[in-house]
Amino acid sequence: MKKLARLRATLPARREAGEADGGGPVGTPQWLRDGLAALVGAEQVLSRPTDLARYASDASPYRYVPRVVVTVRHATDVAAVLGFASRHGLPVTFRAAGTSLNGQSQGAGILVDVRRHFAGAVVEEDGRVLRSRPGTVIARANAQLARHGRMLGPDPASSAAATVGGVVANNASGMSCGVVHNAYHTVRSLRVVLASGTVVDTAAPDADERLASAEPALVRELMAIKKELEADPELCDRIRSKFSIKNTNGYRLDAFLDADTPAAILRGLMVGSQGTLGFLDEIVFDTVPFGRHHATALLRLPGLNEAAALVPALVEAGAHAVELLDAPSLRSTSTVSGAPGWLAELAEDAEDAALLVEFRAADLDDLQARQERAEAVLAASPVPVVGEFTRDSATVGAYWRVRKGLLTAVGSTRPPGTVLLVEDVCVPPHRVADAARDLFQLLKSHGFASPIAGHASAGNLHFPLMLDPSSPEAVSRYRTCMQDLADLVLNTYGGALKGEHGTGRNMTPFVVQEWGGVAVGLMWRLKIALDPHGILNPGVILDDDPDANVRNLKTLPAVDAALDPCIECGFCEPACPSRDLTTTPRQRIVLQREMARHRADSPLVLSLTQDYAYDAVDTCAGDASCAVSCPVDIDTGAAMKKLRHAQHGPIAERAATWAARHFAALEGGARLAVGVARRTADVVGDAPLRAVTSAARAVLGTEQFPAWLPEVPEAAPKGLPVTRRAGAHAVYVPACVNRIFGVPAGQSGPTVVQALVTLAERAGKPMWIPADVAGTCCGTIWHSKGYEGGHNAMAAVLVERLWRWSDEGRLPIVMDASSCSLGALRDVVPRLSPADRHRHSGLTIHDAVDWAQRELLPHLTVTARVPTAVVHTTCSMHQTDHGSALKTVAQAVADTVVQPIDESCCGFAGDRGFLHRELTESAGAPEADEVRQLDAQAHLSANRTCEIGLHHASGEAYTSVIQQLERATRPPVTR
User: Fold this and answer.
1) What whole-number distance in Å separates Cα of residue 351 and Cα of residue 256?
2) What is the DSSP string of 312-336?
3) Which end of the chain has fewer CB within 10 Å, C or N?
4) Strand 150-151 vs strand 121-124: parallel, antiparallel, or unpaired?
5) Number of neighbours of residue 79 by Cβ within 10 angstroms
6) SS3 414
7) What is the spatial distance between Cα 213 and Cα 209, in angstroms, rounded to a whole number?
8) Please, which residues have CB within 8 angstroms of residue 205's CB and are 6 or more apart in sequence?
9) How far is CA 157 from the centre of its chain?
């Protein structure tokens, strides 16, 4: 109880009287919970206030608290939920990634989560076709297709998080697909669940007959609308014109012109329907070629007009992407890593512009021909063009970070309390420069000065706005600004108010202005025909309320300086190990903001806090995977570690500090305990050990005592290999986990420590293990648990020893666990005194895999390779960029190296997998499913506890790639 009270005192909440902002989640009524549970199972119905609050926000500026959340498993569940909603008059909203920018994945009724159980895709026809479930992340689908030299046509900037279903439902496009390769033109067929529960597969040979039999009134209305449209040539011409550029505002009325049968019309209508016409259960795509080779340039020009003038010729030359950035965009991204120096030199009144141009091709000859055509275009320019094409992946990556860094730059400087709105419009491409200039002036005149960037080849412009929803004056300005924006885009440029983000909620007041009364009347008719009870995402696309775009704007109360920059985009979620178990980084922050809206002593805050202890704090791996994915660099795991620290009492803190100072004895005791437990399990089985540890956890707490896992390895040998200081090329500091844990249970062979010492000798570059290495630790044990005193103590011990062992930095230091390398390189630094920080800066610390790849492998001869090896890149290696070293070493020891498409954090997180095995089981499930289908002879990684977690999740014994390298380079046996 004291632990919970400390957490409650630390988490944000209102301390003064006052009404909460917009009410709060009060939990699901029992009748609603029980009614849905009877249909889909109680475990699929989420009804706690915590559940409702964490789903109440998405990437948009809106906040809608659902009455209940249902994690449906299949189309039958979806049909059952829709039938229930129709009977009770409840609105239904489908949500996958929640990356939609305009509120279309939020609703105040039944929110249906279709991400968790609807992932997976199958490649067909050698990559020319992809059959996908709606919850599949775009990047994952493209990873499957890349093996065949193909990709999906739509390529939104949110591909690492956005799902196939969301991209099709919004007709999202991206930087290179234009109009030709968007979802409307590349979706071959759909399997749809209608509001009535009818399932329609538009690819079925008898799809029209079945649809007519099941939904005769719907078929009659669809064909009637088609007939009326075709009888109005002027409206037909307008529809064709509107969709000749990117346009996701309103419904795809051109579906009635492009198709002749009801099922085919339905296929077209569903694209871009934003969950208002039915549920997309399966999507079949025609894919597009993926150029493996690329040449990219960031070109500086005197102004927007000069930049825009080059676009048509570059497109004609075969450009894959042509991105336009105005001067404010360039200035705001000047601090991006690797950005050209001239960005920072732009004056406030500079009018420069830039084009980011990329060519892709399947072979180098084709790429060279395209690049030469582009260079001829630049050479013929009447104005100077600064910049040249490069094929260097690091430089190309920096250029794209500049383009994508606009969201980061604006989001990270967002004033407290403001929400970030990311808008996009589209104009005829030849007018993009004038439109960008006029748009900038319009926004500035309303107090929303914003940088402008976009897909120049498509005339698609993007701009972020910052709005304080708590200010009536700011909301009024925003309302007026949007009306003026509509007038500018529609009347002056004949453009579209939404190029690729979907109408959502914020453009519904302007659908009539863009399309006219007749066209919108037809849209209402098709909406009613497909959704007669009005249950599917009401208020999205069509809404008669002129203030629909300013209803339910969300506030973002301050909660933590490290978390406040969060724009709730959701990019962090696919990387989060607990995403399918408890909460994601975004939801952890959303829940804190919900608490901050209410009084600290309110029943709601007490309920949220109680759930938060396990759902957010205990089950956070703290591996910083979220920070890698976050556009504003938020490490939610670090914030959870601070909350763990806040839960500790003074006695626990003192005990942790004592442990750091006496770690040598504890380390020996842990090794002994592992050995005894392993031998016991080998004799009597795992059940008794599970029972003993479960009983201890019940008494001491799940955060204090580990659970027994059958995959616990053998204990490491008591003694370390004998090495010599004289002639050593490096100091070798074996990680404490490798001094405690040995090889997988039942296996023989060298431990990591033995293997690395042997390899160094074999390569002629011996290493030295200090005699007093026992008790040395990188400090991650204390850091991950939030024991700041213990972390401080161990950090000081570590640096003192490394400084002494390395002869004050003269010898490099090698550490053999990726998380320990990262901990010693980065995490200890804030814990050091100024003097120790100075010493640390003089140390050279290497991860063992990187050291092996650079220093040992060139001097080794591989004598025995395995046919296939699976590799797992740890979270720490992603942060230190050592993943390529892991793969290089693996390629030296195996004929084929497979990196699973579903590779992600294993969730073991040091000892967290021992404390909460369910975290590892949930986090590792997708990767484990993929690994079990492979016929591999070696499963390789670079961190002992991660290898235990991977073994537990997949059933395959993982070892260090260092051990496999030792086996592969043994001298051949002569007889």
Assistant:
1) 44
2) HHHHHTT-SEEEEEEHHHHHHTTTS
3) C
4) unpaired
5) 21
6) coil
7) 6
8) none
9) 11
